């Protein structure tokens, strides 16, 4: 597994953003965790929400004095084909896990587990890709607390996928979900931790006028003027993100707003082999419309700019573990219309900072888009409330605070177990 380098940060940088009591609490908890070694393991260093979180969470942990590493699994395309199938199954798709696929999964996860030689007090395994490491790690490091951090909505998970992972889950000590509903069928200690955005990251930091001008020039085919409303969805090219549903709604909106433009911006994550296929289908569908713009693997500064300068951001997911792109847009005071699935309703208060719709309510999406495009003051009001929602609930310091509290709990439990065995 590859040890990932991370940027340096300072807790003081967040003083103008986070609550003072929150920062003080973080410092106290970090003192309680002095000497504890923590490892986060995931499947990609780029292109996914988990990687983005770890890029900020890990360095801030170290700034606080919590000795924290981040390692990324090494595996071939065949493994990621398997784990994408598993991901789809866990989100409710009817899939088949053939014996050869199970063998591939076991081989690669066991190989990665064997490559870990350093000892840690706590290991956090992120998502199904890493879960297969649990048994081997538990056998080799019996004093290590294993946490499985599942970022997926499991409320409609396929039974064959859950059964396949059941033995792996049995070897972890604690499970973390984004919503309580996701863990209702698990007979294990569980904690709910909402993900967060880093307001100081390249994707979310303020942009100065020169940077904004440079992005406008670079994206010249897109007309960011009052006369050409821009609707944007930022998401992977993935069947669960329903880009085709967004396109259909846009085409209806365009009959009332002929100059409207649609931006579909998405990255190609290293662990998602389905992305290229979906992108090509979307490109074929939109090839004859010069007002639909597809952007892939854009730098974070560009995504930052798009979320700030779009009139409306849409997140029309069919299923969604959490959907941090909602908080990203709200932080930039851009109103969001999102599906009432997964973690999106935790971020959107319908009518207060955006709108919630059923993922299959195409007519309501069109109505909400047209209503907001005719109401500049309403969009500004929703955007203002959206930023406050994110400030209060979905910024990085709160996220790290939740992790520190969990680490203290599992370490205390481990110490008591060790003392009991000694007696």
Automatic annotation (TrEMBL):
Q: Which GO terms describe its biological process?
A: glucose metabolic process
**What positions does the domain Trehalose synthase N-terminal occupy?**
40-182
**Gene Ontology molecular-function annotations:** glycosyltransferase activity
Q: Does the keyword Glycosyltransferase apply?
A: yes
Q: Where is the signal peptide?
A: none
Q: How does it assemble?
A: Homodimer.
UniProt xrefs under Pfam families:
Glycos_transf_1 (PF00534), TreT_GT1 (PF21269)
Tell me where in this chain the Glycosyl transferase family domain is found.
224-388
Q: What is this protein called?
A: Glycosyl transferase family 1
Instruction: Provide this UniProt record's keywords sorted from A to Z.
Output: Carbohydrate metabolism, Glucose metabolism, Glycosyltransferase, Transferase
Q: Give a yes or no for keyword Transferase in this entry.
A: yes
The taxonomic lineage of its organism, from the top, reads:
Archaea, Methanobacteriati, Methanobacteriota, Stenosarchaea group, Halobacteria
Q: Which family does it belong to?
A: Belongs to the glycosyltransferase group 1 family. Glycosyltransferase 4 subfamily.
């Amino acid at each position: 597994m590859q040890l990932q380098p991370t940027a340096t940060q300072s807790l003081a940088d967040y003083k103008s953003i986070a609550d003072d009591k929150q920062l003080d609490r973080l410092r106290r908890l970090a003192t309680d965790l002095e000497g504890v070694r923590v490892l986060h393991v995931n499947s990609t260093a780029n292109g996914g929400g988990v990687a983005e979180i770890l890029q900020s969470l890990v360095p801030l942990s170290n700034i606080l004095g919590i000795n924290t590493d981040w390692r990324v699994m090494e595996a071939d395309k065949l493994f990621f084909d398997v784990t994408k199938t598993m991901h789809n199954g866990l989100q409710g798709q009817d899939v088949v896990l053939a014996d050869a696929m199970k063998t591939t999964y076991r081989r690669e996860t066991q190989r990665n587990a064997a490559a870990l030689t350093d000892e840690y007090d706590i290991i956090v395994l992120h998502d199904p890709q890493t879960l297969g490491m649990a048994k081997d790690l538990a056998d080799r490091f019996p004093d290590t607390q294993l946490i499985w951090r599942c970022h997926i909505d499991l409320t409609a998970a396929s039974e064959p996928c859950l059964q396949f992972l059941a033995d792996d889950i049995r070897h972890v000590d604690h499970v973390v979900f984004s919503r309580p509903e996701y863990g209702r069928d698990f007979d294990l200690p569980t904690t709910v931790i909402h993900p967060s955005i880093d307001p100081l990251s390249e994707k979310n930091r303020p942009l100065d006028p020169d940077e904004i001008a440079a992005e406008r020039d670079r994206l010249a085919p897109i007309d960011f003027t009052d006369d050409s409303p821009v609707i944007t969805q930022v998401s992977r090219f993935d069947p669960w993100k329903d880009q085709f549903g967004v396109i259909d709604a846009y085409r209806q909106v365009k009959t009332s707003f002929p100059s409207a433009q649609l931006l579909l911006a998405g990255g190609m994550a290293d662990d998602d082999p389905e992305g290229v296929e979906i992108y090509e289908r979307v490109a074929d569908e939109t090839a004859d419309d010069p007002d639909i713009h597809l952007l892939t693997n854009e730098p974070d500064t560009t995504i930052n700019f798009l979320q700030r300068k779009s009139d409306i951001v849409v997140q029309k997911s069919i299923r969604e573990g959490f959907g941090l792109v909602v908080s990203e847009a709200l932080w930039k005071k851009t109103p969001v219309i999102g599906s009432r699935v997964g973690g999106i309703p935790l971020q959107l208060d319908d009518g207060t900072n955006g709108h919630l719709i059923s993922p299959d309510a195409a007519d309501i999406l069109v109505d909400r888009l047209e209503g907001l495009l005719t109401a500049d003051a309403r969009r500004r009001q929703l955007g203002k409330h959206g930023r406050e929602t994110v400030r209060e609930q979905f910024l990085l310091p709160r996220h790290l605070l939740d992790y520190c509290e969990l680490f203290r709990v599992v370490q205390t439990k481990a110490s008591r177990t060790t003392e009991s065995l000694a007696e």
